Amino acid sequence: MAFSAFASAPAAAEPAVRRRSWVALVLLLPGILYLLLFFITPLVSLVFTSFQQPVIGGDIGQYSAGFKWENYTESVTQYLPLILRAFGYAVLATVLALVISYPLAYFIGVKVRSFPLVQSLLLTLVIAPFFISFLLRTLAWKQIMSDEGPIVVALKALSVFPNDGHITGTPFAVVFGLTYNFIPFMTLPLYATLERLDVRYIEAGNDLYASPFTTFRKITVPLSLPGIVSGTLLTFIPAAGDYINASGDFLGSAQTSMVGNAIESNFLVTQNYPVAAALSIVLMAVILVIVGLYVRRAGTEDLV
Amino acid sequence: MSGVASRLAAATPGGIARELEAPVPGRRRRGIRIRGLGLPIYTALALIFLLIPIAYTFVFSFNDSGKLNIAWQGFTLDKWTNVCSAQGVCEAFANSILVGVVATVLATALGTAIAIALVRYRFRARGAISLLLFLPMATPEVVLGAGLAAQFLSLGVNKGLMTIIIAHTMFCISFVVVTVKARVASLDPALEEAGRDLYGSAVAVFWRITFPLLLPGIAAAALLSFALSFDDFIITNFNSGAVDTFPKFIYIAAARGIPAEANVVASAVFILAIVLVVVAQVTRAARARRTARLQR
Fold first, then answer.
1. Which of B207, B240, B2 is nearest to A268 (CA)?
2. CA Rg, chain A, in Å?
3. Which range of residues forms the domain containing residue B168?
4. Mind listing the pLDDT tens digit for each residue in A152-164?
5. Is residue B191 part of a domain?
6. Inter-chain contact A42–B14, Cβ cutoff 8 Å?
7. Domain ranges of chain A
């Protein structure tokens, strides 16, 4: 996406290039080494950890190098519901966030285009949640939706809600929390493409007697596809790995645990590192496959 | 096309389209008006929805509560005047600031260098490097966190402030590269050429021309890094050991009730950030208007 946008700039600088390729090396080396050391090597050590076996007679959390493939088969069998739940919740939250964000992004990006200040102030409101702790926002929803909170009390007073019913701790609350938390991630890329959308195409559709819905489906959506793709990825990937919303201390309960919760508790609580590592690898592999298929289907392959 | 029209188009994207718009038949106009009201109302509702938990956090920072800040107990300013009275809040906040500043400086320096190299130079490993930069953004945080923690574990590194800073720098680099790259690309290489033609050394050209022109992009990247670092919990949780950052403090406290002082800290940071952003936007809008007037 971004690469093609400025294809013309590097061409102008071409002559200076070959003379000073050592400059490029000096510029690249520190950052690339950093990523190799603290991003790639950790992934490799995660793979090694995922095959480790417990030290016989050792303490809890002591493992030695090995090739224990059962770490994978056992943890996937044991945690399959959590894996499926993570992806189910993430898909639901992504779809909901897209449906909620699209009109919002359309209004800010297209309708108020001629008022740049209004546009940027509205955009500030969209990203305002970023400026307050993610955990506090989620806790605020927990309080608002708690059994003593205004929503449950009001619903019970109207007798449309069972007296022993809860909102927090249910799948609904977790998907709600995920959707809420990732709406800005969805809205921003949508806004970025809609802001550049040439409205004359939409007008042409209207002039040719297409219904508003047809115009939207055949013109607006295809033209905003890059934004839809990056927005859904920016929502889906973190949502699938999230363990805050589903945690019992936040919006979830033991019945809503996602794979992220299993990774956290195995790594940090029970010190069962190989299982946590195996689950991480599985999570990442599934995400890469889904993202790869999705991006290929959506047709925007250059995302960086 | 006349000069007026093109200037109009430059000032507002889609400006020409509006200029050339044919009169709309009556029937269709009514339909547009109804939809024209629906979208602003929807936007207002969606924005209110986004702001509800923020308002809640802010209101409950004035709650005259004990340890548990759940039910409303009455208005007080005590929590604002004695923020540090709750155990651990200010220490955690100070840690978050320290980690945020150091990680931002490191990630911005490393990422800006990569961004300049990517736009300005051609080299063979380009595809591989782009992939290396894209992957951290496409990896769930829990995997990034667990991976680093597994590495620190196998190397026997004690977790603490240092490991948090290492982790935060790592995930901020890619975001810095993406942000600064756009700015480097929009930079006119002729300006640097002019500097070289006037016998400026490579170092002088960089610090006197390239760097000042890139500064807005670098500043945006630094702000983004700081925001990402300040609010990160998932990766921090895996790599912090016994050290608390502000989000980790909230996570641990969530099990037994958050003190209202945490709401005070979060609200204060929120207000500061919003004021900074809005002031920047209003100034930029005023400057744009002035430039437009001068060009006319």
1. B240
2. 24
3. 88-258
4. 888 888 888 887 7
5. yes
6. no
7. 1-50, 69-298
pLDDT score, position A2: 34
ipTM beyond 0.90? no
Q: Give me the amino acid identity at B285.
A: A
Residue B58: inside a domain: no
Look at strands A53-54 and A63-64 and give their pairing: antiparallel
> With bands split at pLDDT 50, 70 and 90, how would you rate the model's confidence at A300?
low
Residues paired with A64 in a beta bridge: A53
Q: How far is CA B82 from the centre of its chain?
A: 29
Query: Can you read off the two tokens belonging to residue B215?
Result: 């500064």
Question: Secondary structure of A143-175 in the HEC alphabet?
Answer: HHHCCCCHHHHHHHHCCCCCCCCCCCCCHHHHH
> Chain centroid to CA A42: how far?
21
Tokens 């641990």 sit at which residue? B252
In this structure, what CATH number is given to the domain that contains residue B177?
1.10.3720.10
Q: Determine whether the interchain pair A43/B146 forms a contact, defined as Cβ–Cβ distance below 8 Å.
A: no
* B 227-256 residues inside an 8 A Cβ radius of A: 227, 231, 233-234, 237-238, 246-247, 250-251, 254-255
Interaxial angle between packed helices B141-155 and A225-241, expressed in degrees from 0 to 180 and rounded to the nearest 10: 50
B220 touches chain A (CB under 8 A): no
Query: Which residue, among B61, B121, B224, would best test binding to A if mutated, counting the most A CBs under 10 Å from its CB?
Result: B121
Please, which pLDDT band fits residue B182 given cuts at 50, 70 and 90?
A: confident
Neighbours of A102 (CB within 10 A): 21
Segment 29-58 of chain B within 8 Å of chain A by CB: 31, 35, 39-40, 42-43, 46-47, 49-54, 56-57
- Asked whether the beta carbons of residue B17 and residue A199 sit closer than 8 angstroms, the reply is yes
The answer to whether residue B87 scores a pLDDT higher than 80 is yes
| Model confidence pLDDT, tens digit, residues B58-81 | 999 998 887 778 778 888 888 898
How many independent structural domains does chain B possess? Answer: 1
Instruction: Estimate the crossing angle of helix B126-138 against helix A273-298, to 10 degrees.
Output: 120
Contact A111 B143 (CB under 8 A): no
Whether A284 sits inside 8 A of B237 (CB atoms) is no
Cβ <8 Å between A287 and B140: yes
Q: Which residues of B touch A35 (CB under 8 A)?
A: 132-133, 136, 170, 173
Average pLDDT over residues A120-128: 92
Who has greater pLDDT, A186 or A6? Answer: A186
Confidence of residue B11 (pLDDT cuts 50, 70, 90): very low
- According to CATH, the superfamily of the domain at A69-298 is MetI-like (1.10.3720.10)
pLDDT above 60 (res A9): no
Cα–Cα distance for residue pair B233/B167, rounded to 1 Å: 11
Q: How many CA atoms lie within 13 A of A135 on its CB side?
A: 26
B228 has pLDDT over 80: yes
Count of all residues that appear for chain A in the document: 304
Query: pTM to 2 decimals?
Result: 0.85
Question: Are B269 and A131 an interchain contact pair (Cβ–Cβ within 8 Å)?
Answer: yes
Predicted confidence at residue B35, as pLDDT, reads 55
